[in-house]
Amino acid sequence: MKTGIIILAAGPSGRLGKPKQLLEINGKTLVRRVSEIALSVNPNDVMVITGAQAEKVSASVSDLNLSIVHNEEWEEGMASSIRIGVLELQRRKADAALILLCDQIKVDQVLIQNILEEIQKAEHSIVCCRYGGRLGTPAAFKHAFFDRLLELKGNRGAKQIIESSADKKIIEFPGGELDIDQPADLNLLSGNGLREGN
Predict the structure, then answer these.
(1) In a 10 Å sphere around its CB, with 0-12 CB exposed, 13-18 middle and 19+ buried, how is residue 159 labelled?
(2) What does the alpha-carbon distance between residue 46 and residue 24 come to, in Å, rounded to a whole number?
(3) What is the pLDDT of residues 36-75, one digit of tens each?
(4) Rounded to an integer, what distance in angstroms lies between the CA atom of residue 24 and that of residue 195?
(5) Is 6 helix (H, G, I), strand (E, B) or coil?
(6) How far is CA 67 from the centre of its chain?
(7) Domains (ranges, CATH) in the chain?
(8) What average pLDDT does the chain have?
(9) Other Cβ atoms within 10 Å of 123 Cβ, number
(10) Local structure of 12: helix, strand or coil
(11) Which residues pair with 24 in a beta bridge?
(12) Lowest mean per-residue pLDDT among 2-11, 56-65, 152-161, 168-177
């Protein structure tokens, strides 16, 4: 089964006031960090969706073996990036899509490997994570759900699809709720080596 990884890196980070994709942990931008993790387990089919700050985000990962796809409609919200990524995976005849965010700093190689292994199985069409009492990304969807992903609009991600489907495998993801949305989060995460990139 061919699974493509879509890394969402198009948002303007409005609440944060600075592009979260370019914040750094231990000397690496968040978008590069998650890209390297994705490539370590799926080296042949990773794409980064850019939008706001496209030039800087692209430069951060341009030397990696991945595709950079620009979302001209990034101002609509997250759904537009998901649609563009899924359309590209359809073009590549992918069997499944794994959606990753840049700012979940506890994402690691083991978690992504587990998700990819589970989506390869026949039992479930969705593999998602649970943290902080809710379900969400990282999440993988088999081809049967591509049409529903393409119907997403605005700044809503795939959470509604995940929650409404009984055909899913849930993976526990301790710390998955630690993401970067507003300035206070920078203080909370300073112990992880987080700093603003150049």
Answers:
(1) middle
(2) 21
(3) 999 999 998 999 999 999 999 999 999 999 999 999 999 9
(4) 5
(5) strand
(6) 14
(7) 3-192 (3.90.550.10)
(8) 89
(9) 10
(10) coil
(11) 29, 195
(12) 152-161
pTM of the model: 0.91
Provide the pLDDT for residue 15.
61
Give the mean model confidence (pLDDT) for residues 71-87: 95
Q: What are phi and psi of 138, to 5 degrees?
A: -60, 145
In the sheet with 3-9, reading across from the earlier edge strand, the strands are 67-70, 46-50, 3-9, 96-101, 134-142, 126-131, 168-172
How does residue 198 score in pLDDT terms, banded at 50, 70 and 90? very low
Asked if 81 contacts 10 with a C-beta cutoff of 8 angstroms, the reply is yes
| H-type alpha helices, the chain | 30-41, 54-61, 78-91, 109-120, 146-150, 159-164, 183-188
**The amino acid at 29:** T
Please count the other Cβ atoms lying within 10 Å of the Cβ belonging to residue 175.
14
Is the Cβ–Cβ distance between 42 and 35 less than 8 Å?
no
Count CB atoms within 10 A of the CB of residue 124.
17
Helix 30-41 with 109-120: angle, nearest 10 deg: 50
